[in-house]
Amino acid sequence: VDAELNAIKGGGGAHLREKLVAAASKKLVLIADYRKDSEVLGEKWDKGVPVEVSPLAWSTIKRQLERFVPRSRVQGMAAEAVAAFEYSHPIAVLRQAVRKAGPVVTDNGNFILDVSMGKIYNPLAVEQLIKMVPGVIEVGIFSNMATEAWFGNEDGSITCRFPRSEMKKQD
In the predicted model, what is the mean pLDDT of the chain? Predict the structure, then answer.
C-alpha cells in the first residue's frame, strides 16, 4: 500500500474477484499489517504484481510484458515525463503450484504471471499498460480505489491513513 493507498493485491490469486467486489463497493477500506505500509508500491513487496492471464496465451503475454520499458505508454495517452517503474524491463514468471505439478490455476481457470518491476512510481499507468495486452484478464494493482487504510503495527497499535493527495487538499 503506497502513500496514495494504491495497493498490490492478489497474492492468493483471487484479484479478479477482489477487484470486482472493490469496484462494486461504495467504499474500499484496506486492512493490512505494518509490513505492507510503504511510500511507493514495490518498495517492500518484492514478489511482483500478480497478473491473471489466459492459459492459451501465457507465454506470449509473458514476452510482451517483458518488452515494456519504464517509459512505455498506453496508445493515445501522453508520454510520461518520468518512469512508471524502476527496472529497465519487467521480469514475468509463471506462478507454480506448491503441492501439485504445474502452474497455479485461479478459481476462474486462468494462470498467474508474477511481474516484477521494482518500485512502481505510477500505478495507474502500469495497470493500464498491462491491461492493454491481449489475453490479460486482470491486474493485481488496485489504483485509485481505496479511501482509507488501517495498519496493525508491531506493538499492537493501529494506524489509519488516507491518501496523501486528500490530506493536502484539506490543508
Answer: 91
Mean pLDDT value of segment 114-127? 95
- pLDDT over 90 (residue 13): no
Q: Give the C-alpha separation, 129 to 148, whole Å.
A: 25
Helix or strand holding residue 24 (H, E): helix 15-24
Sign of dihedral through CA atoms 149, 85, 44, 142?
positive
Q: How many CB atoms lie within 10 A of CB 74?
A: 14
Instruction: Tell me if residue 127 is catalytic.
Output: no
The pLDDT-based confidence of 12 (bands split at 50, 70, 90) is: confident
Beta bridge partners of 41: 120
- pLDDT score recorded for residue 59: 98
C-alpha cell at 70: 519504464
Name the active-site residue from 4, 18, 52, 127: 18
Q: What is the pTM of this model?
A: 0.90
Residue 134 · residue 16 · CB < 8 Å: no
All three cell numbers of 162, joined, read 488516507
Helix or strand holding residue 59 (H, E): helix 58-66
Cell of 1: 500500500
Compute the distance between CA of residue 45 and CA of residue 116 in angstroms, rounded to an integer.
10
- Cell readout for 17 is 474477484
